[in-house]
Amino acid sequence: MAKRRNIKKEKAARNRAYAKQFRKKTSRNTGFRNSQNKQEENSESVSSENASS
Question: What's the whole-model pTM score?
Fold first, then answer.
């Protein structure tokens, strides 16, 4: 008996491999660093506003 093929899974795998070409190259840590920097900027702006009041 021949091996059964899961055509939907094969198609999804090919699609993922093709879509990978169009993704932007980013490291996983970049998103974390960006969100951390935004939080620091927000806290600094709030503290400077409180100091001038």
Answer: 0.40
Alpha-carbon distance of 15 to 21, in angstroms, equals: 10
- Coil, helix or strand at residue 53: coil
Only one residue has tokens 């932007």, namely 24
| DSSP state letters, 5-46 | --HHHHHHHHHHHHHGGGS----HHHHHHHHHHHHHHHHHHH
Exposed, middle or buried: residue 8 (CB in 10 Å: 0-12, 13-18, 19+)? exposed
Return the higher-pLDDT residue of 30 and 52: 30
